[in-house]
Design a protein that fits this description.
The complex is a heterodimer.
Chain A: H1 2-15, H2 24-30, H3 32-59, H4 70-74, H5 81-103, H6 113-132, H7 138-156, H8 160-182, H9 200-232
Helix pairs in contact in A: 3-5, 3-6, 3-9, 5-9, 6-7, 6-9, 7-9, 8-9
Chain B: H1 3-24, H2 26-41, E1 55-60, E2 89-99, H3 110-128, E3 130-133, E4 136-139, H4 140-143, E5 146-147, E6 165-166, E7 168-169, H5 179-183, H6 188-194, H7 206-211, H8 215-218, E8 228-237, H9 242-255, E9 267-272, H10 279-300, H11 309-333, H12 342-353, H13 356-366, H14 374-404, H15 409-449, H16 453-458, H17 489-493, H18 497-508, H19 510-529, H20 534-543, H21 546-553, H22 558-562, H23 573-579, H24 591-599, H25 622-625, H26 635-641, E10 651-654, E11 658-664, H27 666-671, H28 683-726, H29 731-739, E12 762-765, E13 772-777, E14 781-786, E15 791-795, E16 801-805, H30 809-815, H31 819-836, H32 845-852, E17 857-858, H33 865-869, H34 874-891, H35 901-909, E18 919-925, E19 928-933, E20 938-942, E21 948-952, E22 959-965, E23 968-973, E24 978-985, E25 993-994, E26 1007-1008, E27 1015-1023, E28 1031-1037, E29 1040-1045, E30 1049-1054, E31 1060-1065, E32 1071-1076, E33 1081-1086, E34 1090-1095, E35 1100-1106, E36 1112-1117, E37 1121-1126, E38 1130-1135, E39 1141-1146, E40 1155-1159, E41 1162-1166, E42 1170-1175, E43 1180-1186, E44 1199-1201, E45 1206-1211, ...
Helix pairs in contact in B: 1-14, 1-15, 2-11, 2-15, 10-12, 11-15, 12-15, 13-14, 13-15, 14-15, 34-35
The chains are: A mainly alpha, B alpha+beta.
Amino acid sequence: MADSTVVSDQQRSGSGQTDPSRGPYIAVITNRSTTLVIRGFMLFSIGVFLALVLNLLQVQRNVTLFPPDVISSIFSSAWWVPPCCGTASAIIGLLYPCIDCRLGEPHKFKREWSSVMRCVAVFVGINHASAKVDFANNVQLSLTLAALSIGLWWTFDRSRSGFGLGVVIALLATLSTQLLVYNGVFQYTSPDFLYIRSWLPCIFFAGVITMGNIGRQLALYECKLMSEKTHQD
Amino acid sequence: MTVRERLREKISTAFYRHGLLCASYPVPIILFTSASILACCYPLLRLPLPGTGPVEFTTRVRDYTVPSHEPQGDLGERPDWYRGPPVAYIQQVLVKAAVSPWDSTLVPVDVFRSPLGRVFSLLEEIRNHVHNDGSGVRSLEALCLQVTDLLPGLRRMQTVLPEHGCLLVSPGNYWQNQRELFDSDPDLLKTVHQHEPKGLHTSATLRDLLFGVPVKHTGVSLYSRKRVVTYTITMVLGSYDARFLSSLRARLRQLHPSVNCSLREDHMVHVHFKEEIGMAELIPLVTTYIILFAYIYFSTRKIDMVKSKWGLALAAVVTVLSSLLMSVGLCTLFGLTPTLNGGEIFPYLVVVIGLENVLVLTKSVVSTPVDLEVKLRIAQGLSNESWSIMKNMATELCIILIGYFTLVPAIQEFCLFAVVGLVSDFFLQMFFFTTVLSIDIRRMELADLNRRLPAEAGMPPPKPGPLRPREAPPPPRPSPYTITLQTPAFRNLRLPKRLRVVYFLARTRLAQRFIMVGTVIWIGILAYTDPAGLRTYLAAQVSEQSPLGESGAGGLPPHLGVASVFPGPGGDPASTLSVLPAPAEPTPLPENQSQGHHGAPREGVPHQAQAPPLVPQISWGAEDEEGWRRLSFRHWPSLFSYYNITLAKRYISILPVIPVTLHLSPREAIETRHPQDTRHPPPFIGMYGEGSKQVINPLSLSRVAALGLAAGVLLVLLLFCLYRVLCPRNYGQNGVAHGRRRRGDLPCDDYGYSPPISEISPLLLRGHSMDIECLASDGMLLASCCLAGQIRVWDAQTGDCLTVIPKHGSCLYSCIIGGWEQRDGWDTVGVAEPENLGGGTEPGGGVFDEDEGYPLRRRTTPRPALFEDQPDLTPLIDTNFDSQPSSHLLLTPPRDGFDFGGLVERAYLEHEPPSLGAVWAMELRGNLIAAGRSSGKLELWDAVEGSLRCSNEDGVSGITALAFLNNRIVAARLDGSLDFFTVDINKPLGLLQYRGPPGRSNMPPSPCYSSEDVISCQLTRSVQCAHQKPITVLRAAAGRVVTGSQDHTVRVYRLEDSCCLFTLQGHSGGITAIYIDQTMVLASGGQDGAICLWDVLTGSRVSHVYGHRGDVTSLVCTTSCVISSGLDDLICIWDRSTGIKLYSIQQEVGCGASLGVISESLLVTGGQGCVSFWDLNFGDLLQTVYLGQSSDGQGVRQLVVLNNAAIVCDFGSELSLVYVPSVLEKLD
């Protein structure tokens, strides 16, 4: 993923910043609001990317040998979906470390990039399962996905604040989706939970956990940078 | 003890044993694991290889029946996809046509215009063919595959592809199957090319579809050499009717016989197509794989502190991958065939199984104590992590089992794979990875140890007992790295420019990188341009989407704009049936005529040997039998996909081709000519171009190879030249010569510079009759004491003997045999004279000695004549005294360290009256010598006059160590008590003269006690039980007294009030070395090989490192580093602030333990009969100075660095004073 390599590059350049002769670029990097913006932008691009890919996964359920128009199928959803997802993920990714900070309980569980990658992979896997696996009925599908989402939280997060925030955001997102569909902005092919699919909250929850994980990891890096700076001062 | 704890303990024990097993037998275990992996993967051979290539199956035409849907029992080799009817039957009519004989009046267009024109009549023939037998009338209309609309994206192709009717394609489709359009087309090639995509040629273009043969073979070109046009008419049949097809075949053969055609017609080929992955599916797949690789990357990055990081990362990945393969293999073995798309679920499986365990194992193993055996380290590491590994595995298994009960088949299958994969991953971790890890760790230790094998031989056997079973692992230690010498700056200046270039190249490895990059690019180009390589593959990939791109880009042909709505070839069955009554119309050529054409011009060939053959030869070969094989394997899928028919997971049956041979007369060719055809350029230009092209094409591969070879040769030549230019001739010899430098060799740096040897020469101070026992110095004076108890005072500058403080004569005479008298007399003479001379503070002894002709001071090693005409008693003395203590020394457990008191005591017990005692400790301050005796008596002697000023006999236990600081003397006694004495001078302090330059020494300028003063020594305080065991080391500096004892503790006392400030605990062995200096840095080394740095102000331990196998024998600090030497003959240099080992120097066996720091960067060590100087910054041996002619095993045991950059060391019974002149300059 391009985003992750960018992150790791910056991390590397960050670790090499111990020499006192810092360039102007480094000074900009260490500026607090600038880092916030950079972080937000990273989260936004990750969100857009995941939205595009996962949407493709949802759209392309029917296997066709030669899709008539590949490029258009990537952007098959409305133009506003990826930016919305990106914005939401940026907000979530910034919110999580912030709440951790407010609550005064910094998240210590599995704070490494490999774990984050694993989390993202599981999230994509959950989406994959929801799109590709044929279930007997919708209840079963939704229950399975709910169990998977909870498992995701337990494996990679295990913080109460993370769970609470995830549930709240998932409910809000579900509600807003309901409203959108109700107003006829778009619709689902076979709604089974009022106007939407019943597995949508689970996907939202898993997505919130994943983005929170990424956001925390990015914030951790920033914290490291800040502490380094204070050390030097 | 709960069940959980018991379980935990059992698991830990089991893992410990397993670790021992793995580390003990690495090779058999790896072999066993590999064998089991292979065995488990064996069932995978039966699985079809992944890929989208079509699979073929051939049956006979004769007894062909449509296969039934139900799988039948044993059908032998029949594949399981061969069930049910195929999507379609493909019947191709392969037409080969030529104008013959070729006439010089003909233009190039004639090669293909009239042969192509015949396609319309053939089409008519085929379409109108009706087979009539008893069962009814059958025509193509009834049998062919009826197609509907083209896909919406293909509107542009409506003009050329049939819609709403029979799927029948031929080149005639370019002209809507209408002869009139064909005839009025001014440029046939342009029409054909209009539908071609721009750019890369692709394999399944419209041209391929319509012609049915690859472009190269069609012959539709102005430069065709063979002048034979080949094309097919492809009928796609929905149902199979053998009789209709055979009648059609017979009919066509009758009309257009192919004489020399011997194509086999009895086999039909069924082609099964796999599911293809489209772009849209590929993107999520690629994403998951990218995430997977990021995961693996971030995971393996954490592997650290091992010998080969990449090797272990590879092993980790191999572990996970082969566990997956094993899982699939095992599942297949037990009859579960994978139905999931392997490529899709694979990343998720890897993520579920994970690399965590492997990393945890590695981390745990590398954090075990380094000094343990490899086996034990592995075992400990395993057992430390056993519980968490088992817990994690149980959790994962539970989660997966829960997933299994979702009862969704796909998830169940995934879970099954994951469970088996987890178990086999666990197996592989335990056997494969652990073993690889043990090998790696062993390699690391070997790399660490390979330089020190001789030391291992001389090492004492490992101490049993309290050291080994360490409960808590010691804090992680930085890995010891070997010395990396940076080239000092001054050396660079001396380099010639040429060498600097070479060094720059070598340092940055520019050449290798360039060559590597170049090779990669070259290989890439080769792979891309190779005819069978990437380029064609890419072209094939692109071709999938080619019609789309083409449809947008290509313009409409002008005449198609007119006939936009076109009735398909089979679009109007009624009209075709109405044409039926005239079937024989387009067959005007009788058989013999064509034969005649064929044969007649043969006579004309010889006289035009160079031109292309006048009569185009139409030959039928085996390659025509299955001409469709030469097409892209996406040919049929793409044809069907235009009508939204997928061939994925289905099959088509290809019937044997019907050959048709057409010979056309030149007259006919001219008749069908379009008026514009003659405007084409004359043919011969094209023929030249064509000819050269023909030559080049088959040669392109060999040309590339030749180019590559040439480039390689050029590269080698270039490198050779580079080598000759840049490298000196005698590069090799020189490298060997100065590559290895042995100790004792002339020191010489890499560039041939060696300091003159005469710079450093030892000054031998002789006079003692026995081995030197104690050595003390205050910078100006030097006091030494031998085993015989004689104290001599020397001038540290000149090496003159100033005073001899004799032992009480009677004792000496009683215990030492005859010759001693002589010698003692000589001694007394030497001593007496300075006293007579007035005994001022200035040493005048040197002058006297030279006047008298007694060369006491010698710069050369040969024994003076004095000793040669006298009976040399040294051997006797050695026999009596020296040998015993020295043999005793060897046998003594090393923990006794420096403390020779015990030896002396034992040696003297038999020979000396008990009232006195040997001098066990001695200190020198001002001109007072404090000597501690084995009897517990403390004596203060005047260094210059040699008179006893004061003595104190308060204690009875032997004084093992003394410290003399300011006016206080601290004496450590054998029973562990510590006595504080105050030296009082009955004189105002202001009158004290200070003497000696304020040097860099850490001792303050000592007051000089003049001989008139009355000096008294009072015991101010006695700490009775300072330590439980004998005090081994006593150091004083900065107002603190530090004692180290065999009871593993270090105590810090304040000098003023004798108050114990701290008791420092941290060593797990007796204290053997302590260092403290003015800056309050305290370092201690113990028998456990550990070195602790303490903060004297707070009593806290700053760092704790393990550096030695065996005792730490001495410790010295500079401002930046700590230097320690140990019984393992290793000198370690540590960073003082971080406690990281900078590097270590391996010395020879039995090198002694004495250390001294002359300046910040100059270290001196004592060895066997020599002292060595080292550069501290780089660990370089600068010089070795031999003290005597014969290094007869006399080790330097004590080494004192004087103020004036001289060192004094004992050398048997002699003292050796070595000036280091080069350092003098540095000090200024």
